[in-house]
Amino acid sequence: MGDVAHTAGTAVPHDDIDGAELYHPHSWLTKYVFSQDAKVIGVQYALTAIAIGMVALVLSWLMRLQLGFPGTFDFIDPAAYYQFITMHGMIMVVYLLTALFLGGFGNYLIPLMLGARDMVFPYVNMLSYWIYLLAVLVLVASFFAPGGPTGAGWTLYPPQAILSGTPGGQDWGIILMLLSLCLFIIGFTMGGLNYTVTVLQARTRGMTLMRMPLTIWGIFTATVMALLAFPALFVGAVMMLLDRLLGTSFFMPALVEMGQQLSYGGGSPILFQHLFWFFGHPEVYIVALPAFGIVSDLIATHARRNIFGYRMMVWAIVIIGALSFIVWAHHMYVSGMHPWFGFFFATTTLIIAIPTAIKVYNWLLTLWRGNIHLNLPMLFALGFIVTFVNGGLTGLFLGNVVVDVPLSDTMFVVAHFHMVMGVAPVMVIYGALYHWYPKVTGRMLDDMMGKIHFWVTFLGAYLIFFPMHYLGLLGVPRRYHDIGQTSFVPDSAHTLNAFISVVALVVGAAQLLFLFNLFWSLRRGKEAGPNPWNATTLEWQTPETPPGHGNWGRELPVVYRWAYDYSVPGAARDFTPQNEPPPAAAP
Amino acid sequence: MPDVAPAPAQDIATERTGWRAVVADWSADRRTFRGVSWGKAMMWIFLLSDTFIFSCFLIAYMTARMSTTVPWPNASEVFALEIFGTNLPLILIAIMTFVLISSSGTMAMAVNFAYRRDRVKTALLMLATALFGAAFVGMQAFEWTKLIHEGVRPWENPWGAPQFGAAFFMITGFHGTHVTIGVIFLLIIARKVWRGDFDQGRKGFFTSRSGRWEIVEITGLYWHFVDLVWVFIFAFFYLW
């Protein structure tokens, strides 16, 4: 294992780099609001993402009410239903998951875990957050704009996205949506450049890339992917804006609407699908890779074992990231394509299962004979593994053209992607929040509330999405406001739908309990101390908790070992922090 | 950890060969790219991201052009100018391309003089670069005006596929925006060079960090990139 420093080396490289200038805030405003401190920016990102996530949660309730009890709620007409779907999907994928993992955890953890004082460009980092906030506000504004938000579906497929039959298509909805996405991408790019350069060029002494905690590997790889994938969405959004505002026909074929020939003609709707999914598929892994990384650290820490196969874990992350750029058309099987392309994209899609399976086996082998502490981060990590395996297996179904085509427009797909990129990453987010909350606030989250939150969320997610697979196999279509009476959907399916809706309401309520816990524990939580989990990584070794301005006091930490020295035979404690020097070598 | 005696960096890496050595070098201590400053690394990664944006624009344009059933306007005729009674195809674009590529030359010289800490020459050469850039944008404005007068619109044109105007205005507009931003950036940095900010360690207005001479080179990276992108736009839009 040449490039992984399992055993601590005594040699410490020269401190050949000048210390960076640190911005020192002078007022409350520059310290907590217009802050250039990555930790504050991380918390700002996280709170904004959670706030907009609450909107998405309420939207999912409304959708489930309609699906479970069609005809009961007058205010959910078809247009409103499509608006709820669209906004729920877009908020969850982009404004919650991407922003929380990269903007939230990325900002907070990268400098701390690498032993840096801050991100490399704190001012740009601050701008990144404020542009993200602006993007969120523009998105929220579309709820109040004439015509309401867009109802084009979260994929915004043209031509319907900008036609009058779609809610928001000829009003403000789609315009604000596209503008908000462009803003988000600009803001993200500013943050993403910071994360990338900080990881590459601003680590502390001794912290080689192959000693980084897997959390950082996940966030770093996802950031690089995002910097390469978001451009496609940006271009798609700009072109659709031009189609909508200037009357160009990039994506618009010749159309007749309400007996009127529209002025569009000659454009290609499929082109938008390619641009969208060239972003959209890497996006799945932009959300999944930070989750992979974080869950590796949660498992190693709370099972008191070194991560199994660290090097393989790193390479699996990198390979998944690279492969995810050549699988995008598996989202477009039903759009029609040459069989050879279907063959190619199905093959690449299935190949991704290999590095992913390596990761799952390595997590299991890390747990194997570990000293498993069934605390909240561990529970959520375990919940993630089973949920992810589950969603991954249905992914194998959908990756094959012949299986995908009949299943594509059913609830099976909804169940699949909610398992694999909805519930699974959200599980990790919760695990990570329970894990790092003590570092951010100095207090533990309440355990009893946490346990209730976990079990209701975990079991509830299965009660919601397992039956949904079955509904999909029955042929219950997705995207329908009201399926009404059909010959092939039995009445029992409606009962099952009502059941799912009731569970969804309960699971949603459990998230409110978690939100309450976040604020309640801020004052009343148990004092955590600097390192409540006896973890090895650098963020737990800060001189102050919560970490102060500049993170490290006078001297930067020096790293002597990898991040996973748990239960080392012969060591005094069952963990050895990364910055603990090795015992003096025999002369 | 002041009590630890620092040892030379190469000691930490034991002897490795082949791919192991490649990995070890890339995962090196503190910095993956030795001797590359934060700002320069950031600009390179940003340009990589920006490359994807321009690639998507160009690929989208090529898709539209190849899939349209209506004939595509002939670039040699559309972009021809009548000068002294002679019809010269692509003459304006040729001049624009020449101007922009020349500006890369002056920029490279500016970077050279920045390394010699020659304030006056650096500032003047950056100013010259900015003037070339402004001239480019000016000629582009002229080209747009001419085409608009001839009836080219984002949604239609007199000669063929409506996507011609759409792609033209979008791609050259996006590139022109890049050039304009570059010109503004050049002027700001040239002023700082002229004033001697980088010798005095004067702090930036927004970032409150003292600027450094390498910002000239970083500006240069951006400028050369915008120039390079133009070569591709020229080849794929005007020459095809």
Task: Characterise the protein shown here.
- The complex is a heterodimer of chains A (587) and B (240).
- Chain A is mainly alpha-helical and 587 residues long.
- Chain A has a single domain (36-253, 265-541), classed as Cytochrome c oxidase-like, subunit I domain (Cytochrome C Oxidase, Chain A).
- In chain A, 61% of the residues lie in helices and 1% in strands.
- Chain A has helices at 28-33, 38-68, 78-114, 122-144, 173-201, 214-245, 269-302, 310-323, 339-351, 353-367, 376-399, 401-407, 411-441, 447-474, 491-524, and strands at 256-257, 260-261.
- A two-stranded antiparallel sheet of chain A has the order 1-2.
- In chain A, strand 1 and strand 2 form a beta hairpin.
- The longest helix of chain A has 37 residues, at 78-114.
- The radius of gyration of chain A is 24 Å and the shape is globular.
- The two termini of chain A are 26 Å apart.
- Chain B is mainly α and 240 residues long.
- Chain B has one domain (44-239): Cytochrome c oxidase, subunit III, four-helix bundle (Four Helix Bundle (Hemerythrin (Met), subunit A)).
- In chain B, 68% of the residues lie in helices and 2% in strands.
- Chain B has eight helices and two strands; from the N terminus they run αααββααααα.
- Chain B has helices at residues 18-26, 38-67, 75-78, 91-115, 119-149, 163-195, 197-200, 214-239, and strands at residues 81-83, 86-88.
- In chain B, strands 1-2 form a two-stranded antiparallel sheet.
- In chain B, strand 1 and strand 2 (86-88) form a beta hairpin.
- In chain B, helix 2 (38-67) packs parallel to helix 8 (214-239), helix 5 packs antiparallel against helix 6 (163-195) and helix 6 packs antiparallel against helix 8.
- The termini of chain B are far apart.
- Chains A and B meet through helix 5, helix 6 and helix 7 of A and helix 1, helix 2 and helix 6 of B.
